[in-house]
Design brief:
By secondary structure, the protein is α/β, with parallel strands linked by helices. The chain is 30% helix and 22% strand. The protein binds N-(aminocarbonyl)-beta-alanine (URP) and zinc ion (2 copies).
């Protein structure tokens, strides 16, 4: 069946133009100012913005954390994703100690297979170098897992500096790249012990034991290690100006460094931890929310292209799950939901508030993640030959964020009550209409996406 989207404003990383889009067999066939109807089913997109499907390269679905499992699995999490215009996620398959990477990938394939409503791929989180030798890494690359994740914190996952050096060097040699969670684990442990000894057990203590300076220290150390390994790296969920300055310094000395941030770091700040009682637990994530000055730095860096992508770090826990840490903040499972609201938040509080252009929004949500994560031009652009993954955003239909109307398996929304200037109208996944008038109308059509080597030719 042919479908023709007419009269919409087509957004790319370099411009916005009124164009028609012809789709056939799940692929974009033509994009031009006027396409005749022929036998196509016509959809009028007048007055609407058409983006390439958003890509969220940082989600955690069905992830065991702190004795529980994220509230969203691949079923609910990817329904939420498409409702928010995200047509592809890259989640984190996770290697536990004693496992090979192939075993870990098999586990995550089973969790996702047949359950996803958007397309999906995996990064591989490496925690045990024993099971991550060259043959194992090659098996990942052959399976389309071309990016990796390394942690400098979390006891079960963290790699020591020497291990970071070895794996970064190996990944560089084999053509992979790693995203790294940067926080100084040992000092965080020491601060945590001090806080607990002093009887500070509430959720408001969480940001105090994970200060910005310890994120910046870890970013700096990572970049020093990456320099010795001569390896490019991605700093994930960057939160603060101090860490950003370390990245800029490494770039100035010639290193290749990419950076990602998330809506919560752009729009929420540490005042959330001052909310009454246990409310603050909703915002317990690592790294924690920072200051307004950090938000300004992150917005500016998105504009200049020094931060390339905005992902969500969707890692959701219900209030009941958060209450596991009622008596002790270290037992609160870390993370927040976000996969459903990223696009409309960036549109409303980025574009409509003059902090970014539509083109920049397209770059950080679609084009750049497609390139950095090895999916471009199959995904990330609206060009003949690309997958027909499209988001139609209605800039004239306001909305409001409410947990009760969302697809998440969640009983709260970090942005509850926030007004939206535009909302998602329709979403197409490889030509299939999966969201209509903001409602999910078709599910479980997601496919695994085998990804190639990262590209760096960002606009
Ligand atoms: N961000 C967070 O608190 N949880 C998810 C895991 C991670 O990315 O660190
Ligand atoms: Zn992380
Ligand atoms: Zn994460």
């Amino acid at each position: 069946m042919k479908q023709l989207l007419k009269h919409g404003t087509v957004v790319s990383g370099v411009g916005c133009c009124k164009k028609d889009i012809l789709i056939e067999d799940g692929i974009i066939r033509e994009v031009s100012p006027k396409i005749s109807d022929g036998e196509a089913q016509v959809v009028d997109a007048k007055g609407k913005l058409i983006f390439p499907g958003f890509i969220d390269a940082h989600t955690h679905m069905d992830l065991p954390v702190a004795g529980t499992v994220t509230a969203d699995d691949f079923y609910s999490g990817t329904r939420a994703a498409i409702a928010g215009g995200t047509t592809c996620i890259v989640d984190f398959a996770t290697q536990y100690k004693g496992e090979t990477l192939e075993e870990a990938l098999e586990n995550w394939n089973k969790k996702a297979e047949g359950r996803c409503s958007c397309d999906y791929g995996f990064h591989m989180a490496i925690s045990d170098l024993e099971g991550a030798g060259e043959t194992q890494v090659q098996a990942m690359l052959d399976a389309g897992v071309s990016t990796f994740k390394l942690y400098m914190t979390y006891p079960d996952m963290l790699l020591r500096d020497g291990e970071l050096y070895r794996i970064l060097k190996q990944l560089k040699k084999q053509g992979g790249i790693a995203g790294v969670h940067c926080e100084n684990a040992e000092v965080i442990d020491a601060l945590t012990a001090e806080a607990k000894a002093a009887g500070h057990l509430g959720p408001d203590t969480h940001p105090r034991v994970r200060p910005a300076g310890l994120e910046a220290e870890a970013v700096n150390r990572l970049l020093a290690i990456a320099k010795e390994a001569d390896a490019p790296v991605i700093v994930v969920h960057l939160t603060c100006w101090e860490a950003f300055a370390k990245i800029q310094r490494a770039r100035a000395r010639g290193q290749i460094v990419f950076a990602e941030t998330c809506p919560q770091y752009l729009l929420l700040d540490e005042s959330c931890y001052k909310k009454n009682g246990f409310e603050a637990a909703k915002y317990v994530c690592s790294p924690p929310l920072r200051k307004k000055v950090d938000q300004e730095c992150l917005w500016e860096a998105l504009k200049t292209g020094d931060i390339q992508t905005v992902s969500t770090d969707h890692c959701s826990f219900t209030l009941a799950q958060k209450e596991m840490g009622k008596e002790d903040f270290t037992k609160i499972p870390n993370g927040m939901p976000g996969v459903e609201t990223r696009g409309v938040l960036l549109y409303t509080y980025g574009v409509e508030e003059g902090r970014m252009t539509l083109e920049e929004m397209c770059r950080v949500l679609s084009e750049n993640p497609a390139k950095l994560y090895g999916m471009y031009p199959r995904k990330g652009c609206l060009e003949p030959g690309s997958d027909a993954d499209l988001v139609i955003l209605d800039p004239h239909k306001p909305g409001v964020i409410e947990a009760k109307t969302q697809e998440y398996n969640m009983d709260y929304a970090p942005f509850e009550g926030w007004n939206l200037k535009g909302t998602i109208d329709k979403v197409y996944l490889r030509g299939n209409l999966v969201v209509d008038q903001g409602k999910v109308v078709s599910e479980k059509q997601g496919q695994y996406i085998s990804r190639g080597k990262y590209q760096t030719d960002f606009n």
